[in-house]
Amino acid sequence: DNYGLILSNTARPSLGVEYKNYSPIKFENIILKFLGNINYEFFVNKLEKEREVPNTLLFGNRVTFKPNNSLKFSLVRIAQFGGKNRPKDANTILNMLIGKDNASASLSFEDQPGNQLAGFDFIYHPRINSNLKLYGQMIGEDEAGYFPSRKMSLFGFSYFINNQHPMKLSIDVVDTFSGIKNYSYNHLLYKSGFRYYGLPIGASIDADSEAIKLSLSKKYNDLDLQFSFSDILLNKNNSLLNYWTRQKTDFNQFELLLKYKYKKNYIDLIYTHRDHKFNNSNKYNVFVNLYFKF
């Protein structure tokens, strides 16, 4: 997902460790039973040396609840902490874990444990129509009273048609402007921001940007055909830190993906076209990906 607000597939994976459960937790307590199946995952990764604070650490966690077959929702959080010349003692880690990372009367600016984003996401299948899926995500760049503030949002829906050649239609609306210019995915201490080798760790459009994306996918036996059309506004507040461009840029983008499966192997052919060329992007791109399983 390249529009995930807190984690997307835009930046390459960073080195780290992960802990998660593989069997859902179920509470028998009458008060907690309504939460349904519960899953969790935690990870700690290390970011690159070539950044403002070298070897910054990245902590993330997700707790997912499935109270019934129609609804699934998750509480998510990710934090940058540590790194060269930054505190990594037990008290700093505890403050990071409990969200005590804003400067205050008892915590100086320099002693802040890290940079944190948190929020929730959900997926809902209405019982009256299981082919329809509604989903969304709300992520805050700050906290107020232990709840996310300075919020970014993603909402969308998809409709699945199951016949001889299944088809799915999706619409996504995403906005990474959090209410203050050039605030999203940036930090005064961790000045390289929420990025890995410059690429966004969060939404692919990076900070202070918005997009509307219409997607259609169809399956023909071993061939998957997907295309999408997007209306994208990048860097609407002219930040010098946005990965893609330092100036406000509005453009349309078309993408075509052909995925062919042969036994356990896949080949992807991806074509993209933009009606505007900007700093780090050409108007036309063609990619070929090969996946082999042995």
Structure description:
The chain has 294 residues and is mostly beta strands. It is 3% helix and 49% strand. The chain contains 1 helix and 15 strands. The strands form 2 sheets. Strands 1-2-3-4-5-6-7-8-11-12-13-14-15 form a 13-stranded antiparallel beta sheet, with no helix packed on it. A hairpin with a 4-residue loop joins strand 3 and strand 4. The protein is globular, with a radius of gyration of 21 Å. The mean pLDDT is 88.
Would you spell out the secondary-structure blueprint of this structure?
Elements: E1 15-20, E2 37-46, E3 57-66, E4 71-81, H1 90-97, E5 114-124, E6 132-144, E7 147-161, E8 167-175, E9 195-196, E10 199-200, E11 210-220, E12 223-234, E13 249-262, E14 265-274, E15 284-291
Antiparallel strand pairs: 1-2, 2-3, 3-4, 4-5, 5-6, 6-7, 7-8, 8-11, 9-10, 11-12, 12-13, 13-14, 14-15
Helical content (DSSP H or I, runs of 4+): under 10%
The number of helical segments is 1
Report the biggest beta sheet as strand number plus sense, adding barrel if it closes: 13 strands, antiparallel
Number of strands: 15
Shape: globular
Class by alpha and beta content: mainly beta
Radius of gyration: 21 Å
Low-confidence stretches: none
Distance between the termini: 26 Å
**Sequence of strands across the biggest β-sheet:** 1-2-3-4-5-6-7-8-11-12-13-14-15
The ordered H/E elements are EEEEHEEEEEEEEEEE
What is the arithmetic mean of pLDDT? 88
Strand content: over 45%
Write a concise synopsis of the structure shown.
The protein is an all-beta fold and 294 residues long. It contains one helix and 15 strands; from the N terminus they run E-E-E-E-H-E-E-E-E-E-E-E-E-E-E-E.
